[in-house]
Amino acid sequence: MKKMKRQPTHPGNIIKQDYLIPLSITIKDMALVLGVSRKTLSKIINKKGSITPDMALRLSRAFETTPELWLNLQKNYDLWQAQHVSNAWQTVKPVSLQLLNY
Fold first, then answer.
1. How far apart are CA 76 and CA 97, in angstroms?
2. Please, what are the averages of pLDDT over each run of 10 residues along the chain (102 residues)?
3. What domains are defined for the chain?
């Protein structure tokens, strides 16, 4: 598995830096546009929440992007976190094909 050296940007930071700030939109107003609570959007922007498939669809409509963009941003962030927060996954050994043919 190829390790990324730099931590990927959380999608909430991209929403804030690339959309809300330049467009002078508040979290409250953006939440209304997206049809979600202010709390839900605030969690994402503050890296305490994740982009779900439903949210990816909402963001893609609002910002004229693709849902895949938002899901990939979240996936990359989550994988990096998993690789760097714990090393327990590295103790897993590959499954031998011989074990599968018992």
1. 30
2. 79 98 98 98 98 98 98 97 90 78 62
3. 11-85 (1.10.260.40)
